[in-house]
Amino acid sequence: xxxxxxxxxxxxxxxxxxxxxxxxxxxxxxxxxxxxxxxxxxxxxxxxxxxxxxxxxxxxxxxxxxxxxxxxxxxxxxxxxxxxxxxxxxxxxxxxxxxxxxxxxxxxxxxxxxxxxxxxxxxxxxxxxxxxxxxxxxxxxxxxxxxxxxxxxxxxxxxxxxxxxxxxxxxxxxxxxxxxxxxxxxxxxxxxxxxxxxxxxxxxxxxxxxxxxxxxxxxxxxxxxxxxxxxxxxxxxxxxxxxxxxxxxxxxxxxxxxxxxxxxxxxxxxxxxxxxx
Length: 277
Hints:
Layout: H1 2-14, E1 19-21, E2 27-29, H2 36-39, H3 45-48, H4 54-67, H5 72-84, H6 88-101, H7 106-118, H8 122-130, H9 140-152, H10 156-169, H11 174-186, H12 190-202, H13 208-220, H14 224-232, H15 237-258
Antiparallel strand pairs: 1-2
Helix pairs in contact: 1-15, 4-5, 5-6, 5-7, 6-7, 7-8, 8-9, 9-10, 9-11, 10-11, 11-12, 12-13, 13-14, 13-15, 14-15
């Protein structure tokens, strides 16, 4: 039973990581906050009838999509269901076809851009997301995701301008602050990263993934006892133990990477905020 819990905790953290290489030679993993809120409407009949089981949702929405591939809502629901179950390439293909059929549909463009970002197609994702909103009517969620795509392309200063724009719309939004904190982590600005993540963590709407980001950046500064306390939080004992074990693994990997011969690239996984659809 303990093994299953540890495995679940490992999945919880690892599902939020994709590789990003730092100019300084330190690798990292980063994800982005999701933009679900800008993609679907809670008043939608299909949203209200959404199956709770992710695989069942794929089946239901897949049938609706195949019955009418040009139905924008069916394509959106199917694409989101595919993303939730990890079928990222198929989700991207479905949403790409939907945007071709509905080129002016900004909701579909936002979903397609997010799917491209899932697949690591950062530049394409940024370009598509740029078409999903306008300067006159910006969407803070999309601005935040655009920031993460820029971070993954190594354009950190530009990324932070997008986070700043998002925070002007939703001050102290924890998901945006978390992404900003990770951006500072990627450039080794650890004190600034910690300060930003603490702001995110102090927000009542922050979830456990913000805590893991904060625990990591504290640990990267050598304060492991404090990092362990943060990682445990008020979690059940087994889940807390799994999170601490993974935190130890990440920090141990960082130490091993630091001992590599010059010229060898290092990679350090970074737990990050990513709310599944």
